[in-house]
Prior knowledge:
The protein has helices at 3-8, 54-59, and strands at 17-27, 30-34, 47-49, 70-83, 93-104, 107-111. By secondary structure, it is mainly beta. A 5-stranded mixed beta barrel has the order 1-2-3-5-4.
Amino acid sequence: MQVSEVFSSKSIPVGHRITLEGIFVMSCGIGCFVQNMDDLGDKEKSIFIEHPDLENKLLSCVPAFGGGKISYCDKAKISGVLNREFSEGFLCKFNGVSDFIIFRNDAVFNVKL
Length: 113
């Protein structure tokens, strides 16, 4: 399911395990998925990724961007449970995450959560 489908669907699959595809962004230690680069920074069009050690897990297997507040901004796919609970100012969050894959250039990174 694309990020845009979550927000445009009248029957959002809340409480169900789904696979989400979009752009994963980590900024200042907060991870989220957006549909496209135009949605960066817009929490109403972003899905918060809840995982207690997400940044460290990423740093252990995927090179981070340097020199700015955004450490990751890559096409990605993740499985988890969608919830409508507000978290970090986002309208919904994704938890119980697994199968996190980041695609960068020709490389594929399987993030071990």
